């Protein structure tokens, strides 16, 4: 539902800033949506651009680890599935850049900021994919974590972001299932295939827990983002939800999660888990992960090598607009 109509401007001038803030606060308190033309505080706009841009960058950079296996998929069926998935990620990036544009951001500028290291993307995509089981584990764990984090974003207070997330989440569900199905197939295969799956789980489990962001007490943005209804839950709550969901899935698959401290806690009704290496997380998000340099170099090459396409399309659009005028 969109925000209630703004009060008419006073006859003698623009709307009163206090009235605008009051209307914004009332819209958020009523659980209604803020739309692009509604007034919003500068901090709300800035936070949304930061989060949506980081999210869009994650989808685009996230094409690389799996894209690396497109030419080495073990069968035509697996190749068709992987191709569709990687293309979906490109689409997610596009919806999200479009949502950021409704806030006044410029897409080319956001890409420059990503390449120059002035905007982040998800830590998870700075780890390499070493064998085909990694494709399955990305689908199961990475897309699984993404679903836990993103389903609540379908109720985010900013309309274009929330609406983009609905389609994205539907596609992420397919991604998770194809990953789990690939892993089930491998687990029913040879001992070598089972070992590949276990190895991939060992490498991706801890980084997948880091996708949810720092613990709430070290998360500078969470409290304000939750008050604004951009985020609906804290990082720790969503991380716990993900652990609770993944432990039985791992048991059904027949793999061991690489954390001896995982145990059911009947008192809390949740699984306990071990300490996350936050020093590693900080290293990876500050640019020093195993694949950061490679990811950014490839994104930079894609921007530079394809600059002529952007120039041609821009010039064509300009000529069309001139002809229409
Ligand atoms: N990696 O105050 P906090 C996908 C940053 S792609 C890197 O808690 P916030 C897929 C954080 O941005 C899905 N940076 O922040 C694609 C902030 O940065 P600033 C990706 C991280 O925003 C292809 C600082 O640390 N999902 O599914 O309240 C193939 C402090 O953190 C990370 C999204 O983007 C991280 N893991 O909460 C397969 C979801 N965590 O202020 C799959 C949308 C934190 O220094 N985003 N930071 O610029 C969100 O939900 C929130 O932004 C976060 C962080 C929960 C991630």
Automatic annotation (TrEMBL):
<dbReference type="InterPro" id="IPR007814">
    <property type="entry name" value="PaaA_PaaC"/>
</dbReference>
<dbReference type="InterPro" id="IPR012347">
    <property type="entry name" value="Ferritin-like"/>
</dbReference>
<dbReference type="InterPro" id="IPR052703">
    <property type="entry name" value="Aromatic_CoA_ox/epox"/>
</dbReference>
<dbReference type="GO" id="GO:0010124">
    <property type="term" value="P:phenylacetate catabolic process"/>
</dbReference>
<dbReference type="GO" id="GO:0097266">
    <property type="term" value="F:phenylacetyl-CoA 1,2-epoxidase activity"/>
</dbReference>
<dbReference type="GO" id="GO:0005829">
    <property type="term" value="C:cytosol"/>
</dbReference>
<protein>
    <submittedName>
        <fullName>Phenylacetic acid degradation protein paaA</fullName>
    </submittedName>
</protein>
<dbReference type="Pfam" id="PF05138">
    <property type="entry name" value="PaaA_PaaC"/>
</dbReference>
<dbReference type="InterPro" id="IPR009078">
    <property type="entry name" value="Ferritin-like_SF"/>
</dbReference>
<dbReference type="InterPro" id="IPR011881">
    <property type="entry name" value="PaaA"/>
</dbReference>
